[in-house]
């Protein structure tokens, strides 16, 4: 690395794309990677999604369903910046995984299909970003198609999401009549589908085109000028500080599919998105520029590549410099570990990573050492980063091995898949039966599939339906309170929890047993 440590850290931009399925996340990711030179052919990421691309065929199920159930990390360099994109699965059943990934980024890019406006999944993900004060950059996609009027889209941002916006540019027409964008920030017009030399039309100080131009003859030009005038007069003011604080979202219009507006977006994003920020820990704020290496595990994934049968712990670097072969402390385990097997993530292949700084994501080959949320540190001071959000499972299944002779692979599979964090494991207190809890149904299907394919274990799944799970505050509870409507279980850390039939059963229980203090882990970070 040619730069010094400080410049390296300040050049990092680490983000996730949040969007509703089909808004264009995959297309956008691919275009960004093309600009960054990380992939050579359009279609690489796309093909991965549809399963046509063999080398990234990480999971059989991803291929079968045509959805992305694995979050991956992609890195590229652009204009002196090093960009890390953390992919988040779009399917809502994987929200827990997605939410944790959002703990590892410094900003988010929100892609909205301009014909659909703000959709459900975007709203959920947006809330998590808001909770963490993550700056959000909005890309209104698919302007090459007829969509909602741009002013209506802005109103939706403010009304539905409750965030103020600043349009960095404004579309000139849309759909068949899409001519380009009026770039307020750069005071230029960027034309759609013209030769590169004609792409930009500079504007005068008054925001108009000098002299004659074909685009002026269209009524769309005048309409755009009127709307821009309205924005200048009645819209929010541009404020880099408010963007960085997550209180104002800059809005860009474009069309990812035709690569229009993407480069302008990328360049402005890099200019205004924040570099790695200090993170809270039990020892106060940890400065990304501090010398001692630290990071946390936000994701664990087994068998990313079936040919390797490996398990990877994804670590967000929060301070210092990672060097291959270094020794780190894992405060939870109270022991030192030498990090010799590490990997970084480029779009097309995994490379061995030699060095990484704050903002980067490294993958450590893991043989069962790490858990999600683990902090790793170097230096004398031992500390823990803030807890990662835990999501309260809503759906439950009873699970057992079909073949009693194969209990060993059953237990091994369950243990490893549970550590990845997509499903939670409980045992009933009396019979010690295994129950699985998840946020969505699809996670059970993935579990079943992976148990069979990766651990050679056929399982019997018995549906328990939805339950209201509440943890017991304290280490003891009267086990006789367990019954079918309020089932007492222990989670994998040995903490007691009740699974209530429904909200009514929960209230009834609380009335009858006021001495039992219950809590919902999700309320702790609302
Ligand atoms: P996702 O990852 O958010 O789920 O969305 P993805 O990029 O896969 O895009 C969803 C669909 O929207 C794709 O069409 C894609 O080609 C299309 N799309 C993305 N950006 C634009 C855009 O700027 N303009 C237009 N017109 N379409 C766009 P598909 O038919 O589902 O897939 P495909 O057959 O094109 O691959």
Give the tags.
526 residues; alpha+beta; Rossmann fold; Alpha-Beta Plaits; 3 domains; eight-stranded antiparallel β-sheet; seven-stranded mixed β-sheet; 31 strands; binds guanosine-5',3'-tetraphosphate
Question: Can you offer a commentary on this structure?
Answer:
- The protein starts with a helix and ends in a 7-residue tail after the last strand.
- Helix 2 (25-35) packs antiparallel against helix 3 (44-50).
- Strand 14 and strand 15 (311-319) form a beta hairpin.
- Helices cover 25% and strands 29% of the residues.
- The chain is built from 13 helices and 31 strands.
- It is of the alpha+beta class.
- The protein has three domains: 10-64 and 91-272, 3-Layer(aba) Sandwich (Rossmann fold), CATH 3.40.50.300; 279-377, P-loop containing nucleotide triphosphate hydrolases (Rossmann fold), CATH 3.40.50; 395-524, Peptide chain release factor 3, domain III (Alpha-Beta Plaits, 2-Layer Sandwich).
- The strands form seven sheets. An eight-stranded antiparallel sheet has the order 27-24-26-25-29-30-28-31, with helices on one face. Strands 2-3-1-4-5-11-6 form a seven-stranded mixed sheet, with helices on both faces. A six-stranded antiparallel sheet has the order 20-19-22-15-14-23.
- Bound molecules: guanosine-5',3'-tetraphosphate.
- InterPro entries: EF-G-like_DII, EFG_III/V, G_TR_CS, P-loop_NTPase, PrfC, RF3_C, RF3_dom_3_sf, RF3_GTP-bd.
- Pfam families: EF-G_D2, GTP_EFTU, RF3_C.
- Keywords: Cytoplasm, GTP-binding, Nucleotide-binding, Protein biosynthesis.
- This is Peptide chain release factor 3.
